[in-house]
Amino acid sequence: MLSAPRNFFVGGNWQLNGNKQEIGNIINFLTAGNLDPSTEVVCAPPTIYLEHVRKTLPSSVGVAAQNCYKVPKGAFTGETSPAMIKDVGVEWAIIANWAKVGHALEAGLKVIPCIEEKLEERESGKTEEVVFRQLKAIADNIKPNQWQNVVFAYEPVWAIGTGKTASPAQAQEIHVKLRKWLNDNVSADVARKTQIIYGGSVTTDNCRELARERNIDGFLVGGASLKPDFIQIVNARQ
């Protein structure tokens, strides 16, 4: 049950990168690339380019906001609501704050909530405590009929942009524990079907080895998603 196959999912988080010309180059290689049709691909440009990217990317590639706010409107300078995101045709949001998950789902977005782990937490043996606390906070904001719109991303912060990487075995171990928590605290069906992707410095060098792990259902990719090599990461299970 815990290692049942699920569709592969690869998200490209462009972070604070890109102008229209550079984004055009990314769209060109995504359009021309031979993307594995069995893998769901979602790209997250900076907010100001969301509508432009949605209009120019092939419809087979999803688009995500990198963040969203927890209310539909109001005096919140600089924020973007899920309703605004949907209004420009975007269907996903990456969410690092559990308090935003419930409203985003209610507004009709699909969400990629991030579960983070710091190096000091791992070294002090608190990994399970830390990730389970975050997972519970997120799960408490998801209604039974909304789980199909949720893809979790496990992000060991210590392996992002530091040159350190979690081994496939380390990543698999946490994914198995997260899935078991879902089984024990939500339902066996949710645990079996929910995708849990890995977001810790995924590159062309390590993607295939990571993809061989049965409980790693894909990746959330940062800087590597800005380069043509991203196609290789998307196709890591081929």
What would you note in describing this structure?
This protein is an alpha/beta fold and 238 residues long. Helices cover 35% and strands 18% of the residues. An 8-stranded parallel beta sheet has the order 7-6-5-4-3-2-1-8. Helix 2 links the parallel strand 2 and strand 3. The longest helix is centred in the last third of the chain and has 18 residues. The mean pLDDT is 95. Homodimer. This is Triosephosphate isomerase. Keywords: Gluconeogenesis, Glycolysis, Isomerase.
Provide keyphrases for this structure.
single chain, 238 residues, alpha/beta, eight-stranded parallel β-sheet, 35% helix, glycolysis, EC 5.3.1.1, Triosephosphate_isomerase_AS, TrioseP_Isoase_bac/euk
**Mean pLDDT score, rounded?**
95
Tell me the overall shape.
globular
Number of strands: 8
Strand order of the largest sheet: 7-6-5-4-3-2-1-8
Query: How much of the polypeptide forms β-strand, as a percent range?
Result: 15-25%
Radius of gyration: 17 Å
Helix-strand sequence: EHEHEHEHEHHEHHEHEH
- The tally of helices reads 10
N-to-C span: 23 Å
User: SS-based structural class?
Assistant: alpha/beta
* Biggest beta-sheet profile: 8 strands, parallel
Helix content: 25-40%
Uncertain parts: none
Subunit structure: Homodimer.
Enzyme class: isomerase
EC number: 5.3.1.1
Catalytic activity: D-glyceraldehyde 3-phosphate = dihydroxyacetone phosphate
How is the secondary structure organized here?
Layout: E1 8-13, H1 20-32, E2 39-44, H2 50-56, E3 61-65, H3 82-87, E4 92-95, H4 101-106, E5 110-117, H5 119-123, H6 127-139, E6 151-156, H7 168-185, H8 188-193, E7 195-198, H9 207-211, E8 218-221, H10 230-234
Parallel strand pairs: 1-2, 1-8, 2-3, 3-4, 4-5, 5-6, 6-7
Helix pairs in contact: 6-7
